[in-house]
What does this fold into?
Amino acid sequence: MQTNHTVLTSDARTLTGISDQSVDLVVTSPPYPMIQMWDGLFSNLSADVKTFLDRDDGNAAFEAMHRELDAVWTELFRVLKDGAFACINIGNATRTIGGRFRLYPNHARIVTCFQKLGFDSLPEILWRKQTNAPNKFMGSGMLASGAYVTNEHEYILIFRKGAKREFKNAAEKESRMKSAFFWEERNTWFSDIWDFKGIKQGLNHTELRGRSGAYPLELAYRLINMYSLYGDVVLDPFMGTGTTGVAAIACARSSIGVEIDGAFAPVIIEQEKSCKPVAQALLSNRIADHDKFVQVHSRAKGPLKYISLHHGFPIITRQETGMQLYTIVDIHAKSDVEVLASYESLGR
Ligand SMILES: C[S@@+](CC[C@H](N)C(=O)[O-])C[C@H]1O[C@@H](n2cnc3c(N)ncnc32)[C@H](O)[C@@H]1O
It folds into this structure.
């Protein structure tokens, strides 16, 4: 098996290089409206944003920033296949403008736009980003009627374009069986609150990742496993440092990353080219976690009922029997903007 990973340095408000109905999954995190680190970027995208910020008109600036994101969401509706999912990581912003402190509800504004475009909203995930920072409590401290609750979570909004994806022929059905995950992974991944404390990142460019608002590799890795099959095409229209591309390689899916800032393309290609150890670690951790689960479960409840056909793992359900795991054989750059990865079945 081979997967292909392309980086486009362009503006995702017009995804001209990507055909209608050609993408199987979107995993992304946009610049967050009304978070100061993105004011400059939004002001470059729209002169209105700067005008409204200069006038201390927070509501109008919020709306002007979202109008720029709306253009990207509109393009996603065009390029996604029917039945495909879009997962959008977004946090709300808190900010004082013109002497008034308030919350800017980015998640609600994005849900409204996706629904207008014709996407169906699905149950979402709260990513709990608990911190011990001393300034996490905002407002009047211990005095009533002027203190605000902490803002320690982000959202992973989940949408589907149209009706459920269909798996019509034998090859599609088999690919779905091969792309299955473990029962206990389902229980964690499909819970509505995620907490990545203690999960090692393993990616380079730590400082750049901080400045670009990168999300954890585990976040993209889970979503890709949850909402796509082997060989599918995953698009990230706000690629940043390339976390989604690395996760796609680790999951044996192809990817397209769009990023407006040309400085990122070489970073993305380098991350993708060198991600074999990180990808192997993700897989080894999954297997080690499953082995642990089998031990604990069989001690408590007796032997597991099924055995996986390709790898001989004891498993809980029949749905897991066809699961096929792949290890990476090789990753290399085909050009300055494209990486190829090849895989073989996990020998176990
Ligand atoms: C929150 S960061 C994404 C971080 C990424 N998930 C990662 O893990 O590195 C948003 C990215 O979107 C890019 N961006 C902003 N507006 C864009 C646009 N119109 N088209 C393409 N990329 C854009 C920014 O340059 C930034 O790198």
In short: The chain has a mean pLDDT of 96. The pocket of S-adenosylmethionine is lined by residues 11-13, 29-31, 41, 212-215, 237-238, 240-241, 243, 258-261 (CB under 6 Å).
